[in-house]
Records
---
Amino acid sequence: MTAIEERPVRVRRVSLRVTPRALAVGIVLAVALLVLSAVSMTTGDYPLSVLDVVKTLFGFGDAGTEFIVTTLRLPRLLLAILVGAALAVSGGVLQSLSGNPLGSPDVIGFTEGSATGALLVIVLAHGGSGEVALGALVGGMLTALAVGLLAYRRGLQGFRMILVGIGVAAMLTAANSYLITRASLQDAYAAQAWLVGGLNGRGWDEIWPVAIAVVVLLPLAFGYGRRLALLEMGDDSAKGLGVPVERSRAMLLAVAVTLCAIATAATGPIAFVALAAPQLAKRLARSAKPALVSSALMGALLLVASDLVTRLVFGEEGLPVGIATGAIGGLYLMWLLSSQWRRNRG
């Protein structure tokens, strides 16, 4: 990556340093997200015009249009945007802390931990959607705590965290499979439906927890962006530049884990958004530093686009979006590993 000149941008009392290219990428992603959102709101079994959607959002639509807009499509769109942004920022923070593009929550076991928590509630307690979401949240956080403790040795080492996380993920995958084999047919069906991850059937009840987490934690992550960039330079360099290393790393890790756990609790595991979105945003911005704002926009854009494509090809309830992101993400992971292998050989 080449060094790119930063320029100060000041909005009232808030001052930021951004590169022109990163700013342009952010604007393009925001516009693309807005366009795709409009297409998503107007496309489906009951096509609507943009004017109909706008009138309905301001309370001037008929009953049928209001049901389609405010009950079916708007919650789905908002949840896709919020979950995509939360997963992308979580992945961006963890990849920077680990110093490795594979250090995303769905590779190092945090998502599997959420799945285990949800499965325990479904299979053993026969809980409802609220209890399942709580189980997923607790499972993800406990898994992150376990990975952190097992990987800790005179500080949290990124490569060690990835290796430990992959091992923990493998064990949790086996545990999840065992739980499904012990479940009744009805519980196994419910568990499998949750495990594929999707936006079908989600509504406003699932949106509010993710919205609160995003509103509180994303600005916190963005505020720690400069410290995150300094931490990528190594602990000694960061300490020399006045960064409280352990406290900053603990705060960033807590933010990343909470974002991932709450997003997974709302939709089930959505594969590869946390892995791919930060890398794509970073490559577009040609930045050597974490690009968390662009990552959030890219994550939201990827999930909205994936959901729109699955709806258009397979119908409103045809294919969970988690399967689509998993298929696309698998190709991306193969390309990422292949490019790293070629770079190491060169």
---
Amino acid sequence: MSILVDKNTRLVVQGITGREGSFHTEQMLAFGTNVVAGVTPGKGGQWFEDQSQKVPIFDSVQGAVEATGANVSIIFVPARFAVDAIYEATDAGIPLVVCLTEYIPILDMIAVRSYLDSKHTRLIGPNCPGLITPGQAKVGIIPGSIVKPGHVGVVSKSGTLTYEVVYALTERGIGQSTCVGIGGDPIQGTDFIDVLQMFEEDPETEQVILIGEIGGNAEEKAAAYIAQHMSKRVTAFIAGRTAPPGRRMGHAGAIVEGKSGTAESKIQALNQAGVQVADNPDNIVDLVVQ
């Protein structure tokens, strides 16, 4: 079993004919993901072709859903079009939308989040690497070559650290149930608590790795949830320990202002919840195998 995506996923790619959409559609098809449709307005009726595989292209998500039964969407469109793409997928009844686009304005995302809360659609992202269930489905840009089926769930704000930790797990012979990159933007569709709850309920996930970063209070909230609701072991890492106060870190712009959102406050909260926190990314797998 897995969370969010599996062999039954029927994926539609919004922006399938763009540079990023084309390249990563090829990667997802090569991994074995069931890509059933693409969407590019004005190119409906054409085909996306990759070696022996052909994916029909539609002018709208609604048309793709009606023709193919797509139940997950991934968005590869520029920031100025991404919000409309999320709304379109939501209005077409897609239950899970993954948006990799970065630089979506916060005010726009506040409106999107409010809209999603009134619908039955879950958003992963924006500004995230997507998710992957080893051996079943890859929806995003996490390299398929570094994963291995297994029983460790990974949830992370950082794309790069997700790759690094997953690769280290696989090198040590430790497989993953599902790896979820939730992104580091201030307004997200899905947060740590949402994913922790899914891992807790997934019988195939035996323990969880949480990768957070400085800024905000999502990690402190996750710690409170873990203390109250998680029976499975959680290991964590907080990125940005050495970032100077007031300076933005990384592409997501994580920042510590004053005494809030510091690595120390997050590590303390996680430790109090019974979570072992690694000193550096290389140390995470050592803690997992203890």
---
Amino acid sequence: MIQTRGERAFTVFSAVVMILLTVFAFLPFLLIVIASFTEETALIRNGYSFFPEHTSLEAYRYIKSSAYIFIRAYGVSFLVTILGTAIGLLITSMLAYPMSRSDFKYHNTLAFVVFFTMLFSGGIVPSYIMWTQYFHIKNTLWALILPNLLANGFNVLLVRNYFKNNVPLEIIEAAQIDGASELRTFFRIMLPLSMPVMATVGMFMGLAYWNDWINALYFVSKPQLYGIQNLLMQLMSNIQFLNSGQAGSVLGADTVSLPSTAVRMAMAVLGIVPVLFVLPFMQKYLTRGVVIGAVKG
């Protein structure tokens, strides 16, 4: 198709604007990476800079000294993210499936219940009592998984809209005529035809589990169950304590000096690296799943 001069100008203008927005979005992350390689005294004296006065690997040497703890925390985070995302996707899609079926008598009732949870919640104290007194998940791996399984009704509605608008009812009826049960229809027809929204919602859930630190703060006191985010918080608290005068009074020594700012930036880099590797592979599903699942609802 031949473009007019105005259309070509708009295309160039749009490309320039998107490139500028991309650069502005990437600059904060680049600044964090540079700060993690900057000498602590230069950070304190000059602040964050894209062109540091002195570079240093001291922050990463400090993290390397605790490599075993970091590897264990990475293992916990990966396990929780994989298990939580897989179970959460299964529950979310199985709840969205009857809501998408207009021939199911209670599909509107289910939709109202899910929507209600988006407006109101039980609160922190009732949730804490429920999980600790009735489900006894405190200091277990399930404390990092169960509270987030159905915490987001938006995902359920997104999957329901995708099922409703992209999988024709005639396909389901044809499968039932051929003798397929509801479970067989769900696993063999609905899920294979819904990979974009499954990948999109899986990405949302995975990011939520990877970045979560609230559940461990409430329900976990064993360091062996700390994920990478909780470990970062713990290490930062330790560094602040060692850099304060309290450490000297307790240990009977002078104040300990550690590169706290650079270590904080290095930890942020290590926490986001796995996400940077996964996101490009999910990009094509992310756009399609969100647009199709949301706009036609």
---
Amino acid sequence: MNNRRSERNVTTMHQSVIGRRQVLGGLAASLFMPALTPSSAIAAEGEQRFSHVFGEIVLPRPAERVVSLGYTTQDSLLALGVIPVGIRDWFGDQPSGVWPWAQAHLNGAEPILIKGNVSIEAVAALKPDLIIGIGSGISETEYAALSRVAPVLMQGPEYPAYGMPWDDLVQTVGRAVGKSERASELVSETRQQIADIRQRHPDWNGRTAVAAYHYGGETGVFAPEDTRGRFLTELGFTTTPPVAKLGESGSFYQALSPEDLSAIDADLLVWISSDDTASDLVDLPMRRLLSAHSQGREVFAGGLLAAALSFGSILSLPFVLSTLEVEIAAALDGDPRTPVPSAVKAGLAP
């Protein structure tokens, strides 16, 4: 996985081709209640209405043939037992764009993988009755063009393009495919996993934590409303004041001055990397001045774990939770000599 160094949003669109948004190399990138309530959403018996950032769509019946254009929305569909007819490729060269934590949900199916620019004709050829554009970053013009093929479900107007929380996402998708009850069950199960971890680690509550990256010579931090930042918040952490301001800008990440990394000097520093090794990060001079480093409070998330954090989905979060708990506990036990396995393996340990 390449670090999400760039968010190159191609906002112009030729008649039949949508410019693809490359989201910080697969690392850029999600936890809160849905904005829609059943009473406000149902306008007629069996009919579902969805208000979203570009307007409103109406589904006369649950969708069955779904194209997943959001970079992570395939996970919500698969968790609900709906195999998309087309999946937008993000990063990682995974079969059908589905990562290991979700592969079993394909049941051997091989959805069409949509790579590069998204052709409206190619989407139309899949004959969808719903296109999910939540977390796709498409523009309103692109939305209008795709709406000629099928209703396009976008994130709620209260969320940025890549900022819809995982629980709201799966419940919204669940309603669109007629599986609201199952969606609520899935959300409850994952929330319980999170609650169990918080109960085991009450000392985490209120301590600061940030998710940072170092890629191509640039060091940066993910915003609190980004998938990775939100994950840490759900575990009870807060963020540092400088990083908290990122949420006000609407950006999901922010590059930092190489001369001043103080913004990420939190009680817990989680490095997100596209690789399992981090030689460039190991050699980053200013990192060694951070108290998070000298006190052994760094955790390294590379490869599969970083991808799962970046997805932050109903299917990837259980994997993240089961993997990171031990790492974070080791980093925050108050003893700098306690090895943090991932940091030791990556060469980051003090």
